[in-house]
Amino acid sequence: MVHYxxxxxxxxxxxxxxxxxxxVHTDEEIAKHKGPPVFxxxxxxxxxxxxxxxxxxxxxxxxxxxLETLDKYNCDFCVHGNDITxxxxxxxxxxxxxxxxxxxxxxxxxxxxTTDLVxxxxxxxxxxxxxxxxSSEYREYADSFGKCPGGRNPxxxxxxxxxxxxxxxxxxxxxxxxPGETVIYVAGAFDLFHIGHVDxxxxxxxxxxxxxxxxxxxxxxxxxxxxxxxxxxxxxxxRTLSVLACRYVSEVVIGAPYAVTAELLSHFKVDLxxxxxxxxxxxxxxxxxxxxxxRRGIFRQIDSGSDLTTDLIVQRIITNRLEYEAxxxxxxxxxxxxxxxxxQQAAPPPGERDGGF
Length: 357
Prior knowledge:
By secondary structure, this protein is of the alpha/beta class. The chain is built from 15 helices and eleven strands. Among the domains are: about 100 residues, HUPs (Rossmann fold, 3-Layer(aba) Sandwich); about 140 residues, HUPs (Rossmann fold), CATH 3.40.50.620. It is about 40% helix and about 15% strand. The strands form four sheets. Strands 9-8-7-10-11 form a five-stranded parallel β-sheet. It has a two-stranded parallel sheet with strand order 1-2. The chain has a two-stranded parallel sheet with strand order 3-4. A hairpin with a 2-residue loop joins strand 5 and strand 6. It catalyses: phosphoethanolamine + CTP + H(+) = CDP-ethanolamine + diphosphate.
């Protein structure tokens, strides 16, 4: 997948240098080393390109990063998170560049992983919503997911994401609309931020010469009211970072009202309001949430040209349920074996422990 944890890694990597090139693996490579990908390679290429800290994308990048690859793209060094990534036979994919001193590390984002997101989709639980207590079922899942016969894995397991003001500041542009910019307002759940959202925002961005796009994100309970089931899969804090990481978005309203009111339009001095081709659910009183911008003649419906929806992503996961569960357990076992091997190498020989007495 591509989620805000990846965006945060790319943000940190970009801060280490001047130009960020991101290598994205093919579906074939991922299936071989990790398990079935959730997004196709074409979707992932486009998703990564839409992240605002990325300068260039290299499609079909080799799974094992070599010095040859770094030299080919004139890179001084490569960056990865402080979790490990292993080949199908359990080798560190960054071994060569580490030995050459051309490897840097950034912090992995606590509380988000493809493993956790997949689990939320499979469990149909609302425990991840911002005001929900963790159910015993989700707690049991969180405790066991990423566990394998060898014990608990520090990377593949599930942990809770804790939003901070610092994290929002790091992701936000901090820019206010400038004179001559067209303020465009879009609203929705933007759940499991995906290629459908990117295509829509890219089209909206093209509507003006100097666009300033504000994305209004609805509260979890509001999204659940109109989407049902256990939607949103990502809570409001997580969706905020996902949308802020997109290069087409200038500002986010965290917990926007469902109806686009006259007050909201005046407050943000909105010139244009856009919505995709997905169905617009009426407000709780049965009214059209877009009646005010329509009355003002500033409402536009935009066809993103993409048929991917959050529902379709969940469907992909459910279809491959057994494969994903097997993937997570296999990945965890491989990483634990690697950790154990590292511990044994680091341990002093018998007789030298405890000062060698």
